Amino acid sequence: MTKLSVNINKIATLRNARGGNMPDLLKAARDIESFGGQGITIHPRPDERHIRYQDARDLKKIVSTELNIEGNPIPKFIDLVLEVKPDQVTLVPDAVDAITSNAGWDTLRHKDFLKEVIDTFKKAGIRTSIFVDPDTRMVEAAADTGTDRIELYTESYALAYAQNREKGVAPFAEAAETAHKVGLGINAGHDLSLDNVKYFKENVPHLLEVSIGHALICEALYLGLDNVVNMYLNRLK
Ligand SMILES: CC(=O)[C@@H](O)[C@H](O)COP(=O)(O)O
Ligand SMILES: NCC(=O)COP(=O)(O)O
């Protein structure tokens, strides 16, 4: 079974637009869980333009499924994660000024750094995941860091889907087979949507979890959050 973790960054973006508490991020997280969502993902960025560090602390108190915090392990992110102790931390190598995540880790080049950070989180009892491109060398080197899982960065699949989905999914299927062989759990995310997620799930083996935010919240504007969560759950069966 593949779990759906809903990324609620975009709900925080909307809230922050007016400075008040509408929409209420904590209520949205609780509602998503009551609709069947199996996890909540947040990606606090250093400028706190959507998720604020305080949101992570508040969400920890109310999320009853699984809290996944994503981000670049700069010192203040590491401190936040160690304080909040989410179920999972996903390390993403994004630049401070990145509009959104735009690359996976070079796990060969940053192996020593990743080993150290992963060791710190694992000692605190937090499951770890590393955001990587679908490249078997990067997946194999990820295993050497001691991480529990990888998250496959799916933007290239989402871009290819309309033109040539067979070609677009092939590197992900291969990366997932490699990850499974070297003992890593497999998550995936970025630009997955109601259109493209079913084919991905059908063609990428051993997929434990997808985290989906941008498309899901956009789709919910037309279809409703409850309905959309359930449409994803059906596609992930
Ligand atoms: C790691 C990843 O691909 C997503 O978490 C993405 O980072 C969403 O972040 P934004 O909502 O800031 O685009
Ligand atoms: N890890 C990916 C994620 O949380 C959501 O990415 P997106 O669906 O907002 O592109």
From TrEMBL:
Residues where 1-deoxy-D-xylulose 5-phosphate binds: R45, H50, T100
Entry binding sites for 3-amino-2-oxopropyl phosphate: N7, R18, D191, G213, H214
Protein name: Pyridoxine 5'-phosphate synthase
GO cellular component annotations of the record: cytosol
EC code: 2.6.99.2
Pfam family, one: PdxJ
Subunit structure: Homooctamer; tetramer of dimers.
Species this chain originates from: Pseudozobellia thermophila
Places the protein is found: Cytoplasm
Domain of life of the source: Bacteria
Pathway(s) where this gene product acts: Cofactor biosynthesis; pyridoxine 5'-phosphate biosynthesis; pyridoxine 5'-phosphate from D-erythrose 4-phosphate: step 5/5
Family to which this protein belongs: Belongs to the PNP synthase family.
Main location: cytoplasm
GO molecular function annotation: pyridoxine 5'-phosphate synthase activity
Gene expressing this chain: pdxJ
Catalysis performed (reactions): 3-amino-2-oxopropyl phosphate + 1-deoxy-D-xylulose 5-phosphate = pyridoxine 5'-phosphate + phosphate + 2 H2O + H(+)
GO terms of biological process kind: pyridoxine biosynthetic process
SUPFAM superfamilies, per database record: Pyridoxine 5'-phosphate synthase
EC primary class: transferase
Keyword list, A-Z: Cytoplasm, Pyridoxine biosynthesis, Transferase
Site (Transition state stabilizer): E151
